[in-house]
Design a protein that fits this description.
Elements: E1 4-5, H1 13-19, E2 24-31, H2 35-38, H3 44-49, E3 54-55, E4 64-67, E5 70-74, E6 79-83, E7 87-89, E8 99-108, E9 116-127, E10 133-135, E11 143-145
Antiparallel strand pairs: 1-9, 2-3, 2-4, 2-8, 5-6, 6-11, 7-10, 8-9
Amino acid sequence: MADGVFNIAKGAVAEKVRDGASNLGVLLLQANELEADLIDHADIAALLGAVGNTEATATNYVRKTGITGTITVDNINNRVDVDIPDQTWTALGGTTNNTLTKLIIFYDEGGTDSTRIPLTHHDFAITTDGSDVTAQINAAGFYRAT
C-alpha cells in the first residue's frame, strides 16, 4: 500500500480547502481494503460500509474535525501544496489497542458520513499502547497538485 488520492477528490482538493475554512477531518483505519478498491469510495459512509475497512476503536480514539488547511502556491515549481497541522491523539489505546493501517483526510460538506468526502489516504502503521500518537504530516503537505 501507499499514499494516494481518492478518485472523487482528484483535481479538487485545493478547491475544497480554499472553500472551507475549517472543514477538514482525519480518521484512522485499523483495516483497509486494497488501494484499487479503497480509492473508489465517494464518501466516508461508503468507505466504512465496504467490507475490509474498519475505523479505529482504540481507547481515546476520536476523529479529528474542524481542521483548517493551508494552501501554498509555488510559482517557481508550478504547483500547489495543501497542508494541515500534525494531529495528536493523547493516550491512544492502552485498554483497547489497535494495529492501525491508514490515515484518511476528508472534507466535511454537511456533518454526516454520507456528506464527508475522502480526499487522501496515507499509510499509518502504528500499534497503539496507551502512548500519545502523532500523525506527522509531510512537510510539503498532504496533497500536491501539479
